[in-house]
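Recap quiz, item 2
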Amino acid sequence: MSFELTILGSSSALPTSKRFPTAHLLKVDERFFLIDCGEGTQVQLRKFGFNPCRIHHIFISHLHGDHVFGLFGLLSSMGMLGRKVALNLYGPDTLEPMMKQHFGFFGSLPFEIRYHVPSPDVDLPVFEDEKLQVSPIRLKHRTTTFGYLFQEKKRALNMRKESIEKYGLGIADVVRIKQGSDHVTKTGEIISNQRLTLPPFLERSYAYISDTVFLPSISEKLKGVDLLFHEATFANKDEKLALATLHSTALQAATLAKAAGAGKLLIGHFSSRYKDYKLLVEEARTVFRDTYGVEDGDRYSLEQRRETTE
Amino acid sequence: MSFELTILGSSSALPTSKRFPTAHLLKVDERFFLIDCGEGTQVQLRKFGFNPCRIHHIFISHLHGDHVFGLFGLLSSMGMLGRKVALNLYGPDTLEPMMKQHFGFFGSLPFEIRYHVPSPDVDLPVFEDEKLQVSPIRLKHRTTTFGYLFQEKKRALNMRKESIEKYGLGIADVVRIKQGSDHVTKTGEIISNQRLTLPPFLERSYAYISDTVFLPSISEKLKGVDLLFHEATFANKDEKLALATLHSTALQAATLAKAAGAGKLLIGHFSSRYKDYKLLVEEARTVFRDTYGVEDGDRYSLEQRRETTE
């Protein structure tokens, strides 16, 4: 069961020859979730070996070009590749009229687009199924902007395979045991649930925070997140510029990661004014040691781990 | 005095990891002309070492995504880079309303855009100055489409530098001599123009033909073109598909190059169905030997040559 993030584009507004504009691809159990879609995302998908047609959900943080200009080409190519199944687009309420206006000039697609708008006031999930939920996190930037928190759902206990045969368990027994019950044998012996089951896999989570001014308050919503991406457009010496443009510094990203008790912090969206982003990583590490600066093509995998049994 | 074409993107509608969508950059005497602007053109410009802000003229063949989706990001980046000078956009009459609609959502730019629409009926130049003229060539595709012919203008004779001193020529003498006159010395000796001047540099030309169904009639307009790019989406066995989609085969491109007496034929915009484009080049070479298949990053330079003196 995979949980893998691939950085498709890591630049800020101005791409370089090595950094494409922002796009992240999250793979959860063979499903692909695209998060933002800067210019050239379809090229990056191909470069890193992903089939664009396997993406059914695209989450857009905000309608600035460096986060969204790749949608036109990606969706057009999906149509040319014969896509028939619906595509879900999540993002601010201006996304739908913008896309519809675009299709008015360039023609409609051979598949349906379903638009989903996060509530601006409450953090109700915008996507949810039996395994995963995605919640928007309202950010503060120069236009309506959302981060997204991807959380696996609490899993059931796993049966120890050998116990099924050993105790001759039926389906009804297994259902009860997976819900936490002990088992009573025909001879009246009580077999504790712990002897019959393995603890469930821990729920993994990824949060994508870009672009925003430093918002300490969102640490509550990010409590215990395993993998946190936070924009870090500026170095500490340019903190005023960060505030003026409603962006964050690397140090602020680290401060948030620490407050949230995150497992690992990824920073990116570096301003092209910095020749080397190592300074930004160093600044962040003074506050949060497990910080990494991302580059196009980087992959971060979260392994499946079980709750430790006492 | 340079005349150099760089292929920024050579794919057809579906880009691959090695081929970006269509964009060509023509450099004439330190001026840069961008021709079509597929997604990722700004990234390709940087990759191949060009400053996007040095481009003041962009020629769009038609409003299909693979020829135009890079405009949004390129123009946005020009704005962020502090561009103040006007940018000229040439293309079908739908280009201006499409761009204006786009800016309605993403905000206007800090520089003026001047739109120029080729006449659909006559081939009046859309750009002209003392050195160069650019003429549209009406093509036949699924939407209004123009090719563009870049032609250097007839140059004046060049003075042989040593003759100025030798005969004590004044400015008025030089002007007359450069217009073709002989020179009469104070002693009445007639110095022939050929002894005083070098023949002018030959006018170089480049034609960009994409996308179109095979149009033999345009060979007249392309007579003697030095460098001809012609789309070659399909191999000969798919000629019917070419006709159905209003595209051309490599063989048809070569037939046109031969009829026009072109110097060199470049083909590209290959359908991604062909794993190897060598077949298409081979088919073209059966009719026109000087055919080359283009790849992203290819550069083709036309040297300055003088008319040969008899």
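The radius of gyration of chain A is 22 Å.
Chain A touches chain B at residues 13-17, 20-21, 39-40, 42-43, 46-47, 63-66, 69-70, 72-73, 76-77, 80-81, 94, 97-98, 101-102, 105-106 (CB under 8 Å).
End of item.
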